[in-house]
Design brief:
The complex is a heterodimer of chains A (231) and B (300). Chain A is of the alpha/beta class and 231 residues long. Chain A contains eight helices and ten strands. Chain A has a six-stranded mixed beta sheet, sandwiched between helices. In chain A, a hairpin with a 2-residue loop joins strand 1 and strand 2. The two termini of chain A are 33 Å apart. The mean pLDDT of chain A is 92. Chain B is an all-alpha fold. Chain B has one domain. Chain B contains twelve helices and two strands. In chain B, helix 1 runs parallel beside helix 5, helix 1 packs antiparallel against helix 10 and helix 9 crosses helix 10. Chain B starts with a helix and ends with a helix. Classes of the chains: A alpha/beta (231), B mainly alpha (300). At the A-B interface, helix 2 and helix 3 of A face helix 6 and helix 7 of B.
Chain lengths: 231, 300
């Protein structure tokens, strides 16, 4: 599904990510772990095409997309729920959801209704500005916006960060449900080790921009967690 | 008496608004300081001149009165595509460097002025207004509203409405607003940000062309036509605040009406000085202008 080979990513002169290789197989949930500041979001931005690869290459389903801009990657079936949600603050909730369809040829109305069945909390909000929503509502909106296009690969960057516990619960259930349907592969950046163990198939542990441990989720021992995640 | 003043003020406002509308897109939405904007006005005005000539030479005399309607389309289209060319050839390399884009587009403006001098000659030219725009609406024995001014007022309203519908009621406009609010995220959703930039800049230029064709009705056409309006246009956009159509309308009406009001009992240059002082004072109080979108993109 997704194949990243020896990529180097950074901002301007500084290189953050060094020689990272990573694979997401069809239907898998792959978790990217590590402390704050080790480069998880930088790597994700590299994979989405927001930061260029200095080295290395990347394929989605055997298509080389290393030099493609983000919008082409989206058309290849990548969906993105970024850190901080990145809702368009001056667009209505309805418009925000519709924008998720830009990479597809689907039409707005029916697809939006389908999303509202999954996220009923957004229904009374459709005419409000995206910026007026609470953090949790914005996170649901970010999911709706990404899922409406039926992506083959979802990139989720800390989807439960900074929102109230009840919605954390909902979002975790949502991810579990999506996994059970086997239609979408996921690359999940997540801090909660419990949730990672519950939903993940495979993990990569990042430290100082390099992968220091990887393996099937059963191999994510308390020792690895203690060594690389717990402060 | 005050009715005439008010009409003159609104008429001047409508011209300012038309001139600034394109700028509010390229400068307000895209943050590109396009100093060649004035030259797109000039191109629009010359296109009216060219269309008029073509009609005089090749079309039956009876059709002559309709040339101006065609000229509006020609002006918009030519300015639209020249704007697109300018974006693809120059502006797209300078999005992260506003000062460089200011200098570079200024250079382009001078090149366009020289080109106009080479093609049309240095002296100003004029167009013959179609007969249906001659004369005016007689309200009382002293109050006459010229049809040309009324036509420009109507043209502005049509432009504003079309732009509003495009921005807020179509999928293309929705993508455009998304790109201007958060370029990276818009790209990640599958919106071709390059295409949106190109179209946005072209629409801004096209409206400048349209404004130029309105200017052709009320004054002589010359290569430096745009330079008379460019400062006022920037003032309007800055005063109104970037990112919203309502801001441009506010800016244009304020500057236009104030200008005419002061001109009625002071000299034209003193009036302009006073208006600009007021604008500067206002901006001290509200540096972001009358209405402003608070987005992270604009703060950086």
């Amino acid at each position: 599904m997704l194949n990243v080979y020896q990529c180097q990513v950074g901002y301007r002169e500084s290189i953050i990510i060094r020689d990272v290789s990573l694979k997401v197989k069809q239907g898998q949930v792959v978790c990217l772990l590590g402390r704050n500041g080790v480069g998880k979001t930088t790597l994700v931005k590299g994979i989405m095409g927001l930061l260029p690869f200095r080295h290395g290459n990347m394929q989605i389903e055997q298509t080389n997309v290393t030099n493609d801009p983000p919008y082409k990657r989206a058309k290849h079936g990548m969906g993105y729920v970024p850190q901080g949600r990145e809702i368009f603050p001056h667009l209505t909730v309805y418009e925000n959801i519709c924008l998720g369809l830009e990479g597809t040829s689907k039409r707005d109305k029916r697809a939006v209704e389908k999303m509202l069945e999954i996220f009923p909390a957004l229904k009374p909000m459709l005419k409000r500005k995206g910026g007026d929503l609470s953090g949790g509502q914005q996170q649901q909106l970010a999911f709706a916006r990404a899922m409406i296009a039926n992506p083959k690969l979802l990139i989720l960057d800390e989807p439960t960060e900074g929102i109230q516990p009840s919605i954390v619960q909902e979002i975790q259930e949502l991810i579990v449900n999506m996994k059970q349907q086997h239609t979408v592969s996921m690359l999940l950046v997540e801090q909660s080790i419990d949730f990672v163990r519950q939903v993940g198939d495979y993990f990569y542990m990042l430290e100082k921009g390099e992968i220091v441990a990887e393996g099937a989720i059963e191999a994510l021992t308390d020792q690895i967690v203690k060594q690389h995640v717990v402060v | 008496m005050w009715a005439i003043q008010l009409f003159n003020g609104l008429s001047y406002s409508s011209i300012l608004l038309l001139v600034a509308l394109g700028l509010s897109i390229t400068f307000g939405l895209m943050n590109v300081i396009n100093m060649a904007h004035g030259e797109f006005l000039m191109i629009g005005a010359y296109m009216v001149y060219v269309t008029q000539h073509l009609f005089q030479q090749y079309a039956p005399a009876a059709w002559f009165d309709s040339y101006y309607i065609f000229a509006l389309f020609v002006s918009f289209t030519v300015a639209f595509f020249l704007g697109m060319l300018l974006e693809m050839g120059l502006v797209k390399f300078l999005y992260r460097r506003p000062l460089d884009s200011l200098l570079a587009t200024w250079g382009v403006g001078m090149m366009l002025q020289q080109a106009a001098k080479m093609i049309f000659g240095a002296p100003n030219v004029a167009v013959t207004s179609p007969s249906w725009l001659e004369g005016g609406l007689q309200l009382t024995s002293v109050v006459v509203l010229p049809y040309k001014r009324l036509f420009i007022l109507a043209l502005v309203i049509v432009c504003l409405l079309s732009l509003y519908i495009y921005l807020y009621r179509t999928a293309a406009g929705r993508s455009m607003r998304a790109v201007m609010q958060n370029r990276d995220m818009a790209g990640c959703l599958g919106i071709s940000t390059r295409k949106v930039d190109r179209i946005t800049f072209a629409i801004g230029s096209g409206i400048a062309g349209l404004a130029g064709s309105a200017l052709a009705l009320i004054g002589p056409i010359g290569s430096s036509l745009g330079t008379y309006y460019i400062v006022d246009a920037f003032m309007v956009v800055v005063l109104g605040g970037v990112g919203k159509l309502a801001g441009v309308v506010f800016g244009a009406v304020t500057i236009g009406v104030l200008n005419v009001f002061f001109e009625s009992w002071l000299s034209a240059s003193i009036a302009k000085v006073i208006v600009f002082v007021i604008v500067i004072a206002f901006l001290q109080w509200r540096p972001r202008g009358f209405v402003s979108l608070k987005t992270r993109a604009l703060e950086s």
